[in-house]
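Example record for the data management plan.
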Amino acid sequence: MISNSTDQELVRQFINGNRSAIENLISRHKNKVFTYISIYVREQSLAEDIFQETFLKVIHSLKAGKYTDNGKFLSWVMRIAHNLIIDHFRREKQMRLLSNDDYENDILNEKRFAEDNIEDSLVKEQIKNDVRVLLQRLPEDQREVVMLRHYAGLSFREIAEQTEVSINTALGRMRYALINMRKMIEEKSLNLTIN
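Corresponding structural encoding:
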């Protein structure tokens, strides 16, 4: 059954002419890839364009034999998405990859938070803003690990592959990010809880 196939088996099936194999691969990884793109690209339609461009490039690269089957299909797709995001910002001459407003798809905007009273909504908005400020003050490598882990939902193994470091380095960056954020919370006497 095709849905039980590994990524590597689906890649081979697609290369051998099975079109449904690529549809299965896209379906399997679309949420992680789109979430990753959405972290960096604020505009929904632009994120969708880059997502489509990513998988078009995947299809063309697979057909051209440019993929080496090393068991890291998702990391390869994420690297393509990452490069397309960078290309977009270079074209637009906007070298900043993140700003305080680029978190439309974060966990604090989920539907379950929409039905609160006004006071709870204001408190949650303030917490969200405080977390954004804290993230922006982290060193780039620490911020990237936090974003990939908590916003894109990647495992530490996937983060290590994506950022081209060891798992221990990725774990260390997360540890230091949390330590730094705790220090900043204490220094600013922030309350990031809802009573």
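Summary line stored alongside the record: The chain is about 70% helix and 0% strand.
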